[in-house]
Amino acid sequence: MPPSENSRIDEQPLTQDQIDSFKANGYLVLPGFVADDVVAQWREQFWGYLGCTLDEPDKWPEKVEGFKPDPMFGDMPDLQAIAQQVGGGHFSGGGCGVAVRWPQKDADWTMPDSGHLDGYPGEGCQAVLMVGATTYLHDVESEGGCYVYWPASHHLAHRYFRHQPDRIEGTFRETPEWEARGWGIFSDGGPEPPRQFVARAGDVILWHGWLCHSGSTNVNPSPRVGFFARWVHADDAMVRESIPEDPWHHWAI
Ligand SMILES: [Fe+2]
User: Residue 115 C-alpha to ligand 1 middle, in angstroms?
Assistant: First the structure.
């Protein structure tokens, strides 16, 4: 029997409840998303690349450059299926950035004051980020270098750019309010204080491209090895042309 329209909808990777939660909060946690055997494979590749092990802190390098996991985190079919679902096939990206936060035993841990939006590395806007995903190679406890995010802050960014659409190009950094508040313009006054993504290896947090976020200091003994994947709209120039009233105009959810 051919699948009905309904069963095809059921086959989408995210349920309606998950979509609703993502839309309301700007993030969605997917526990155990990456299979254990894939995580194990990644660990072997990562530590093999560095030529040391998790138990040899004396041999850990200061920097990790050029490492790419196989399978590539953002190219995994399950994750691409989600990007396909939320973007209706119009989001392109994936890949894998690797960001390691080695332990800083002597540092004091504090919650970051403010975060940032991806897509603005220097002057101007590289691309308007639609959605990102983060996972860890090893379990990360509180104060262990977690990805930190401001829940529901994507609404603030939408409101800001809706009122000042030309600033999407990055000129929000040339304003008096930037002088006064910096990235806080996208997180101050949000509904909740910032939160750490405390998670097991292979858990995934899906985050809206306008969710204000930050790295954080790792004062725990275990390194925080983060994998990041990002998606932009295939027609990024069109996305930047105007900011629609409906924050989900360019999405399929
Ligand atoms: Fe970022």
Answer: 8
CA 149 – ligand 1 centroid, Å: 10
Burial (CB < 10 A; 0-12, 13-18, 19+), residue 139, is middle
213 alpha carbon – ligand 1 mean position (Å): 6
End-to-end Cα spacing for the chain: 28
Residue appearing with tokens 């030529």: 51
Report if pTM > 0.85. Answer: yes
Q: How far apart are CA 215 and CA 151, in angstroms?
A: 15
Residue whose tokens read 């790419």: 68
Residues with CB under 5 A from ligand 1 (ion): 118
- Report the top-level CATH class of 27-34+71-241: mainly beta
Residue 85 DSSP label: H
Please state the domain extents for the chain.
27-34+71-241
Compute the distance from residue 76 Cα to the ligand 1 centre, in Å.
21
pLDDT in tens, 100-154: 999 998 999 999 999 999 999 888 999 999 999 999 999 999 999 999 999 999 9
Neighbours of 8 (CB within 10 A): 10
The neighbouring-strand residues paired with 213 are 116, 149
Arithmetic mean of pLDDT, 210-227: 98
